[in-house]
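FW: tagging you since you asked about this chain on Friday. Here's the raw sequence from the shared folder, copied in full. Didn't touch anything.
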Amino acid sequence: MVDIRPFRALTYTQKAGNPVDLITQPYDKIDRAQQKAYYARSPYNFCRLILPLEENKYEVASRRISQWLKDEVLSKERSPAVFVSQQEFQLEGKTYKRTGIIAALKLYSYSENMVYPHEATYKAPKADRLNMLRNVQKDLEPVFLMYQDSEAQTIGFMNEVTKAEPMTQVTDTFGVKHTVWKVLDAKKIQHLQAIFEHKKMVINDGHHRYESALAYRDEMRAKGDWTQNSAFNFYMCYMVPVQEEGLIVLPTHRLLKNYRLTPEVLYGLACFFEVQEIQATVESIEAFLGSHIGEHAFCIYDGAKACGLTLRHDKSVYDFIDTYVSKETKVFDVVILRDIVFGQVLKTGQLDLDDTILYERWTRDALARVDIGEATIAFLVNSIAAKTVAEIAVQHELLPEKSTDFYPKLVSGLVLMDISIGENL
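HL: got it, structure written out here
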């Protein structure tokens, strides 16, 4: 059964200053320019913990968090609590709210069928976050999960909680309003724990953090001095019902380095797709994708021209896909893109994050990175529905790396969890 628990959170105090100057995007969404901007905002900006500019970043983060606790810039809550966290945001002119629960979730190996990944991971980010855990012994950023709540039990719980005055409210630099409520009532928490016991949890964001936490847990257990209540057996998680209207998934566009849209590549693509040249503009690309949802359609942009691709309805194409693409995941555009376009046409082999492949959320940004030479070709895709991701994950099927972009990101710096030796839940 799924075990969630309240915890004594670490939070910023008034000494740290205005929360808007402290919060950040998740560490893996922060580039070098943002790092410097965050540093300039405050000497206590959370970037100084999750992604220090200094060379010995793990040691720096460890010393820094200890000093902030000593100086009472950060403090630990006296009583264990769970939290309700809500993001209010606008997308394409519409206002959404996404509400979830922050609690300590027991760490389960994927083979236990309690927590399910939905996409593959890279080794380097896992090693990075494991080193951070070893040094700071704190859950600095939550893992973001989803679960089914068809009877609206947790939704009802959250609706009641959000009627009260919040603990924290802050609007980030992207215009997203983040509000957090604290729940201390033991009976309410026990009721929530009972609801979660039989849930299946699917990771949305934070696969690398979760897998690093599993590795850290196993390291700590190997040392021998632990109990089932040891905090390192758990991880701070943000859990949202699949039924939430604000559970938005954006596409993640792929950008390759060192590959060109040559006549030979176009010929290879034409074996599988209907290929048509379209205007090389953001508007034309988004219009093409929007008019071909569910048709295994993509756009390609190389800085000079753009093409729209739509999977051909030939028997030979479907026979090929049936042979070379996973049965359960062949309905996903990102799988067709990986296995047919990258694997068969471009013959890319293994693609490495940042070295040979980049990812972008917005079409405009993807095209811009090609225009300035950071990549040579961009592949623009449609998004995948959260409900579909949840369904496929519990069938033990993995999508390619970075297949989804749950939007908006939960900001970092509002709530932390102590997993130091001797800390129990």
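FW: The two ends are 17 Å apart (CA to CA).
HL: agreed, and The longest strand covers residues 94-106.
FW: great, closing this out.
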